[in-house]
Design goal:
The complex is a heterodimer of chains A (about 70) and B (about 750). Chain A has about 70 residues and is mainly α. Chain A contains 3 helices and 1 strand, in the order αααβ. Chain A has a domain of about 35 residues. Chain B contains 27 helices and 4 strands. In chain B, strand 2 and strand 3 form a beta hairpin. In chain B, helix 8 packs antiparallel against helix 12. Chain B is globular and about 85 Å long. The chains are: A mainly alpha (about 70), B mainly alpha (about 750). Chains A and B meet through helix 1, helix 2, helix 3 and strand 1 of A and helix 3, helix 8, helix 9, helix 10 and helix 14 of B.
Chain lengths: ~70, ~750
């Protein structure tokens, strides 16, 4: 018996539907976790990282935003 | 964000901006080259004489050069520019290895040059966006691994615990592109620059469009979203509108995108369940995509007044808007009934260019205008010229899109039109092409305007570069290293599983664990891929075999390789959909079992010319010879290039045996036909068949002595296409063939 015979008789067609439900569940779980009010302050502070990514520097020109 | 225990000890470091400057210059160079090639082939569509009768300048060979140059050279270098700049700053660490950075840069440019040389010379795997032959594919894998080591090494050495959302998008892109590239390019070499895909027919198509769609997803979307989440707040001087939405955006895209590929194969010989699955996930993708678009646009809250005066923000706003339009249209096009109209037409070309010119192009331009003064440590030469570039590019897109959307709809509607007697209203395919010529002119004009805008940007950036200081200042920064063992500041967890789940900052912890994060992202991608692809490969009933379908003869195989070399699949499909207007025009619809020996599959994705799946036996051999010599002598005003060199070049009989052997290694049953003669006498068989075809051409009034010319091999191949299904299966009569013929879906 070949692997393809095993797989052909394994009823895999239903797997696609199971996966769809599975992935929807993950979506709902992530959404629920992320949008809980208790997480708001924590995550929103992380949202400012792009603006606060310049560490302490020995150079006055390291604040490159002033150059443009 | 570091712990108190390590805060007292500061480390000094500097950023490698030299590599960012290199990638930025490369972006500018290849952006111009890639889009210039696009303009050239746009003019070739309107004026076929511009193919100039030169093999390496013909549309079929230049089109993949255009797509590869724009995707991997322009967008690729843009991605690397942004990633090398933002990653160092977001992680507060210099890149892991300057040597790896340089290897990545020069390796990638060498790959681009190799592509620019091999594609016009006709070396291609015939898979869209994966045309490059096997040695270049190996080089891509090596360079990509070097990039990954450099990136993840930087992540490991970071001085910032939290991984900002842009880094997540980069991680997903790096991991997934590696997986896609390796699996789609598995092939058996038959020469220094020639190979056959290890997959065949339906499976090859499925693998290709799993790759092709996700190349759009993980090369043109997720890394650019990472750039958006970094550079948009920078330019607006506002934090991202909703970081929580960005998390949802990320996971939704990673989980859903990987499923959507089959929507490229609706109504083809693909299992119905796979097609439907691809459609459902594509429609679901609309939600996260628009979530990301809204998140990007609303980052400008309170800063909209700046858009009027800041060309960088203008570029970003249009880029994100184009992302929104393209990601609305994509799910819409994935709906089968809409797809039946749009597929094979210019509508898809318009959709792609909304994304490439609007989203990728404008985000890149905005990023470069933001980066150039910072990298060259001076002011931008001219804000006004940046404004001029913006408006040139915007009008270029508008002209392009208006023309090509019109062309797509026009041809789609003409192809399916029936007259009042129930016959095709436009039975000659050329009628549907000639109608598009004014739109092709408009497209070329729009493209020219867009490319001219890039020249303006070139001037602006070069003038900015000329004002750079004699030596770049390299600032030294200080930050605390991460504590060896991170202690999350979360409060003590309550008792009970549910209470712990609710209270645990598990995602917050996860965001700080790069390895776990990367593994989970990879698992998400691989699981989805396995669920979708494995059944297609292993369930036999998905690809029912047809007893009368046999392997190509050695000469036909050689002809097929010429068809691939000339890029004929760029304009001709070989896939008749089970729709009435298709079967009326072309004949019996295509079956999965007809493609089982097709390494690679050649179903195509666009019809500038008619479908060829049932071309065999429709016309005399001489018709094809004359048509290759000058298409306009056979079909007045045809836009097909001349292929007169096929009548001059000699067939390479010396490699035919090698090709047959390679196909046999891939499972094509040459041993089972004619006593396995092709396995030992392939060249002799090819010469015999060529002599017979050449005699027939001469008998039909054509030139003599063509038996050694490439055109004969090409004719052999074309005359075979789609004919097997009409032959009786071995041991049966014609009336009892082993093919179940279902009625086509009528009336669409």
């Amino acid at each position: 018996m070949k692997l393809s015979d095993v797989v052909a008789n394994a009823g895999l067609a239903i797997y696609a539907q199971i996966a769809l439900v599975l992935f929807l569940a993950v979506f709902v779980a992530v959404a629920w976790r992320v949008f809980r009010p208790s997480r708001k302050a924590d995550l929103e502070s992380a949202g400012g990282m792009a603006l606060h990514d310049a560490p302490q520097s020995d150079s006055p020109t390291s604040r490159l935003g002033a150059i443009a | 964000m570091t712990t108190a225990t390590s805060a007292a000890r500061l480390e000094s470091f500097s950023y490698d901006d030299d590599i960012v400057r290199k990638f930025m210059w490369a972006t500018l160079l290849w952006g111009f080259v890639g889009m210039l090639v696009g303009v050239i082939i746009a003019f070739q569509m309107a004026v076929p004489a511009l193919n100039l009768g030169v093999p390496f300048l013909s549309f079929g060979r230049l089109r993949p050069l255009h797509t590869n140059a724009v995707i991997f050279a322009f967008a690729g270098n843009a991605i690397f520019t942004g990633i090398y700049f933002s990653t160092q700053r977001l992680l507060k660490a210099r890149m892991f290895s300057d040597a790896l950075s340089k290897f990545h840069f020069w390796g990638w440019q060498a790959i681009i040059v190799a592509a620019a040389l091999t594609l016009p010379l006709g070396f291609t795997q015939a898979k869209e966006y994966a045309e490059l032959e096997w040695p270049i594919d190996i080089a891509i894998a090596v360079v990509w691994v070097a990039f990954a080591i450099n990136f993840f090494g930087t992540v490991a050495r970071r001085r910032e615990r939290h991984l900002y959302v842009a880094i997540w998008f980069y991680i997903a892109s790096i991991v997934t592109v590696a997986v896609l590239h390796i699996f789609n390019n598995l092939s058996l070499p038959v020469g220094a620059l020639k190979s056959y895909s290890i997959y065949a027919g339906v499976q090859d198509a499925f693998m290709q469009w799993w790759y092709g769609h996700n190349a759009v997803a993980f090369f043109l979307t997720t890394p650019f979203l990472g750039l958006m989440y970094y550079f948009m707040p920078k330019a607006a001087e506002k934090p991202v509108f909703s970081y929580r939405l960005s998390i949802l955006h990320f996971w939704s895209l990673v989980f859903m995108y990987i499923w959507a590929g089959p929507h490229h194969l609706h109504y083809t010989a693909l299992p119905e369940w796979a097609s439907t699955l691809g459609m459902i996930f594509s429609v679901m993708l609309w939600m996260p995509s628009w979530g990301g678009m809204v998140n990007g646009l609303l980052t400008l809250r309170g800063a909209w007044h700046k858009v009027a005066t800041d060309p960088i923000l203008k570029f970003f706003v249009v880029a994100v808007t184009a992302y929104g339009m393209a990601t609305f249209e994509g799910p819409m096009l994935s709906i089968k009934t809409v797809n039946s109209l749009a597929h094979y037409t210019d509508w898809i070309i318009a959709h792609v260019h909304t994304g490439a010119l609007g989203w990728n192009g404008f985000l890149t331009f905005g990023m470069i205008y933001w980066l150039a003064p910072r990298l060259f440590q001076t002011k931008l030469h001219s804000t006004r010229l940046a404004e001029v570039h913006f408006w040139m590019a915007t009008f270029g897109i508008i002209i392009y899109a208006t023309a090509i959307y019109s062309a797509g709809l026009t041809q789609g509607l003409m192809i399916r039109a029936f007259d009042q007697t129930g016959r095709l209203q436009y039975p000659d395919f050329i009628e549907t092409v000639l109608k598009l010529l004014p739109m092709y002119w408009a497209r070329a004009l729009g493209g020219t305007l867009y490319v001219a805008g890039i020249l303006v940007m070139w001037y602006n950036v070069v003038m900015t570069w000329r004002k750079r200081p004699a030596a770049y200042e390299v600032p030294t920064y200080q930050a605390a290293p991460l504590a060896p063992k991170h202690v999350d500041p979360a409060p003590a967890l309550p008792n009970g599983v549910w209470a712990r789940f609710q209270a645990a900052h598990w995602h917050r912890i996860w965001e700080g664990k790069a390895v776990t994060f990367t593994v989970m992202t990879t698992v998400a991608v691989l699981v989805a891929s396995a669920f979708e692809i494995v059944p297609t490969f292993l369930i036999r009933t998905n690809v029912p075999t047809i007893a009368s379908v046999k392997p190509y003869t050695p000469l036909e195989l050689a002809g097929r390789d010429l068809y691939i070399r000339e890029g004929c699949f760029n304009c001709h499909s070989q896939m008749i959909r089970p729709l009435r207007y298709e079967t009326e025009r072309y004949g019996e619809y295509s079956k999965p079992g007809e493609s089982v020996y097709e390494h690679p599959f050649l179903w195509g994705s666009r019809r500038t010319g008619p479908d060829l799946a049932r071309e065999g036996g429709k016309r005399p051999d001489l018709w094809h010879v004359r048509h290759f010599e000058n298409p306009r002598e056979i079909t007045p005003r045809s836009v097909m290039p001349r292929y007169q060199w096929l009548l001059q070049n000699s067939t390479d009989y010396g490699t035919i045996q090698q090709k047959v052997d390679a196909m046999a290694m891939l499972g094509v049953p040459y041993g089972a036909i004619e006593g396995g003669r092709a396995l030992t006498q392939a060249e002799q068989m090819a010469r015999e068949q060529a002599a017979a075809i050449a005699r027939n051409i001469e008998k039909e009034g054509g030139p003599a002595g063509l038996q050694d010319k490439e055109v004969v091999a090409m004719v052999a191949y074309l005359q075979r296409l789609g004919t097997d299904i009409r032959k009786p299966a071995p041991g049966t009569t014609a009336s009892t063939q082993g093919v179940t013929r279902a009625a086509p879906a009528g009336g669409q």
